[in-house]
Description:
Elements: E1 2-5, E2 10-15, E3 18-23, E4 28-30, E5 35-36, E6 48-52, E7 55-59, E8 65-68, E9 74-75, E10 85-88, E11 94-97, E12 103-109, E13 111-113, E14 117-120, E15 126-129, E16 132-137, E17 148-153, E18 158-164, E19 167-170, E20 175-178
Antiparallel strand pairs: 1-2, 2-3, 3-4, 5-6, 6-7, 7-8, 9-10, 10-11, 11-12, 13-16, 14-15, 16-17, 17-18, 19-20
Amino acid sequence: xxxxxDDHEQYLVKSNTRLLIYNRSGRQLMKAExxxxxxxxxxxxxxxxxxxxxxxxxxxxxxxxxxxxxxxLTPVSNFQTNGLAVVEDSLERQGxxxxxGRIVIDxxxxxxxxDGSWYYNNDGEFIRAENYILAKKKLPLEPWQxxxxxxxxxxxxxxxxxxxxxxxxxxxxxxxxxT
Length: 179
């Protein structure tokens, strides 16, 4: 698969599960050492989730590891515009890290919307509130219990604890609807 970067005039190629980057004239810019772990596209911070041996984290366009993943966690997304990326542990529980690799939201969630919550504003526009992160989890040891949801600020501070089954945000009115 080949993907062109118009802004940098570079091409990203996935070859035998490894990444290669070429410039417009066909010169290889990065060795085929890294295996992509998420979308085959660099994020808005110029980083891409990848693995090379024991090195796991986010690399730049030169193939240099810029942000290491915390021990025991693997990236499952690139960084979002809000500076957060989703990671997961060996049990597929998800959490979030920031651009320094610091764990912001512990890996205990089934699903995290790291790019912010989407909602309709008062004008009927569907927009993203990238400072607010919604997370959901299933309770596997208590299958009779409904799923749990929580809301976090992007620095990891809990806004709404996981005492509810669903959360809907209205950022303009500063209201959260919970059930």
